[in-house]
Amino acid sequence: MWIISHKRLKDFWEQPGHANAQKPLEEWYDITDESTWKNFSDVRGTFAKASLVGDCVVFNILSNHYRLVTRIRYRSHKVYILKVMTHEEYDDQDKWQDDCGCHVPPPGQSE
Is residue 110 part of a domain? Predict the structure, then answer.
């Protein structure tokens, strides 16, 4: 898969208090980079605890300490990193789901 963009991961782990996210985020990146997912079922085959939230795929990072929100476009083999957050930030679901546009249909598609 082609991951867009690694910088968002790095920006997160460089924030104070998030240094422990670096290794698991880099591991997620390496695994995802080598993947050839065709659908969400393939994602779950690699990351059993991944969740589908609207049009977003959410990954648990570091034993659920952090959450990584992505949008996956299977046809073009692209994974867009939308947001990395703490579990506490994830609990404010209305905010991050709105910020990430998880329930907004992709351009050219209606709900």
Answer: no
pTM of the model: 0.88
pLDDT surpassing 80 at residue 92 = no
- Please give the span between the terminal C-alpha atoms of the chain, in angstroms, as a whole number: 26
Cα 91 to Cα 81: distance, rounded to the nearest angstrom: 19
Q: Please, which pLDDT band fits residue 110 given cuts at 50, 70 and 90?
A: very low
* Residues whose CB falls within 8 Å of the CB of residue 62, separated by 6 or more in sequence, listed in order: 20, 21, 24
Range of the domain at 88: 2-98
Residue 89 is given by DSSP the state: H
Q: Is the pLDDT of residue 22 over 70?
A: yes
